[in-house]
Amino acid sequence: MTATTMTATTEPDDICADPPESFARRARQSVRTPLGAAALAAVLLLAALAVAGPVVFGDQASRIDTAAMNQGVSGAHLLGTDSLGRDIAARVIVATRLTLRLGLSATAIGLLGGLVLGLAPSVLGRRGGRAVTGVVGVLVAFPGLLFVLFLATIFGIGSTGAVLAIGLALVPPLARLIQNLATTVAGSDYVAAARILGVGRFRIVVRHVLPNIVEPVVLFAAQAATGSLIAFAGLSFLGLGVQSPDYDWGRLLNEGLSRIYVNPASALAPGVAVVLAGLVFGLLGEALAQTAGRRTAARAVPAAHVPAATDTDGALPQTQADVDSSALIQATHLRVSFPGGRTAVRDVSLSVAAGEAVGLVGESGSGKSLTALALAQLVPHPGHVQGTVRFDGHDLLADPRSGRRLGAELAMVFQDPMTSLNPALRVGRQLAEVAEVHLGRSRKAALARAVDRLAAVGIPDPERRARQRPHEYSGGMRQRAFIGMGLMAEPRLIIADEPTTALDVTVQKQVLELLGRIRANSGAALLLISHDLGVVAEVCDRVLVMYAGRVVEELPVARLFQAAAHPYTRALVGAIPTMATDLDRELATIPGRPPEPGEQVTGCAFATRCAFAQDRCRGELPVLEPAAGGAGHRVACWYPRAVGSDTTRDDTARAKTEVVQ
């Protein structure tokens, strides 16, 4: 590929955005909204009652007046008096402090325990994580009210026992929520990128998982605070909570219940206080979530490995003649399987030399992306990788510790940059982490290099852009920023998985030119995954065509359109419209569908869709063998199409038409 110089142009949607707002500024803006203002006013009022109530109304609440016993509502006593003549309204206000203190203490215990158990599977190993998940599952299945009563019996009657009982009862549901959220975030591409950088589990949890689950955890904590108030009221009402001479709203409710027909206010007032306090906590949770303004990802990945299923399709392993021992990365008999007998990648052997650009093409589901993820050791659980993957002479599968070097020497450009960048962190901070982990740079030096890399990939005003978050970037800028992340440590291999998907033609051209310029300047090798044969032809030197998890043809890119030998490759080429395409005819399509990963296929997987298939194709699996007419051209087909100087693009299109018909 000829190196081209890329000009730092601004895309139509690269409109300068304001610098990211701090949490304090977002909080001030949130207060100006009706929700924020109502939450602030309610919290301040509740806090004032809790702080000042015992000071102002303490004497009135504890003063015994035998002359005013069991009085109803009056001007002197707004809610009447109890059996000792004490003012009920004053007692409800004074009880606010103890009720809130106990409720918030229980919520804090539940939140702390939920965070510990919820995040434990992300930090512990496979067995420890599964054990914690199983324990939490059992506890969640136990009815909450019975769990509280059981714990209250164990810890004993009194406020301390009630705090422990309610707090511990809040732990299982919160832990389950955090486990689900953490697992969802752990399946994001930016977490996979952090793992390939060599970032430890604990740091991933602190920097990548926690910031992205703040909103739902805050909302749940607010709901938990409301639930703890109700639970305390219930325990005290039953006599298991606060004991005399102390009192909270639940104990006052118990005392007033016996006189509900004489003085309904004495019983209803504590209950109304519980409801209003719960509404305050709900408003506070919504306001905090609005201030945070973050959303989590929606892709779940389990956290433990299981044995791989054995492929029983009777397939013969592919052979790769004359494997180049000097290849930068080399995979031999690579297989990626999942439980249930699903094998997505079957005996793939490939190599990429230093400085070479190789394209990996095929329909969706052909195994292209999983092959690339296997090379980068990023196959998600419960996938199991078998075979050999050697990077610069090191066997990555045999010695997992050698994979840490991938963070500095391999750059992975994912298909969707929005899910590849952590939405909770500034872009510059995410790029700088690479230099800190793998180059040992200081925080300041790493950030300076991040700014330099953003400028290198053509992002205008890189210093300002480094302070912004991914949502403030356009699609093309996010893709360039992620490529810049890969350039932080001078990679020797770039794996680009559909890097131009969903980008317009202009931005697509800029990204391709950028990849070409990077190769020319650094000598890095490139493995490009794409559905677009035109993109592959422009960028790559060699092409591997995959179908049903296997490489069915390997050829130089110069022979792709004129001398493809496999019917599947020719069908792909024939499906590309050209300027000479007859507008009155429907575009060519390949009939049928590829086999599912779990299907057992005998013979050639393309036989059911191939117009040239014969009995041998349906009974025997072809292997990659040299094709006639060109060096470096191999094809896995019993009856390859004629390859020669007279084979033209029109011949390929006609072969495609035969397949369709």
Description:
This protein starts with 22 loop residues before the first helix and ends with a helix. Among the domains are: 23-292, MetI-like fold (Orthogonal Bundle), CATH 1.10.3720; 558-660, no CATH class. It is of the alpha/beta class. It has 23 helices and twelve strands. Strands 6-7-8-3-9-10-12-11 form an eight-stranded mixed sheet, with helices on both faces. Strands 2-1-4-5 form a four-stranded antiparallel sheet, with helices on one face. A hairpin with a 2-residue loop joins strand 4 and strand 5. Helix 1 packs across helix 2 (34-62). It is elongated, with a radius of gyration of 33 Å. The model is unreliable at 1-21, 294-323 and 644-661 (pLDDT under 50).
Please tell me what the overall shape is.
elongated
- Within the largest sheet, what's the order of strands? 6-7-8-3-9-10-12-11
**Spans of 5+ residues with little confidence (pLDDT < 50)?**
1-21, 294-323, 644-661
Biggest pleated sheet:
8 strands, mixed
Top CATH class of the domain at 23-292: Mainly Alpha
C-alpha end-to-end distance: 37 Å
Helix fraction? 40-55%
Helix count, per DSSP?
23
CATH homologous superfamily annotation of the domain at 23-292: MetI-like
What is the second-level CATH architecture of the domain at 23-292?
A: Orthogonal Bundle
The fraction of residues assigned to DSSP E strands is 5-15%
Total E-strand runs: 12
Round the mean pLDDT to the nearest integer and report it: 78
The computed structural class is alpha/beta
- Write down the Rg: 33 Å
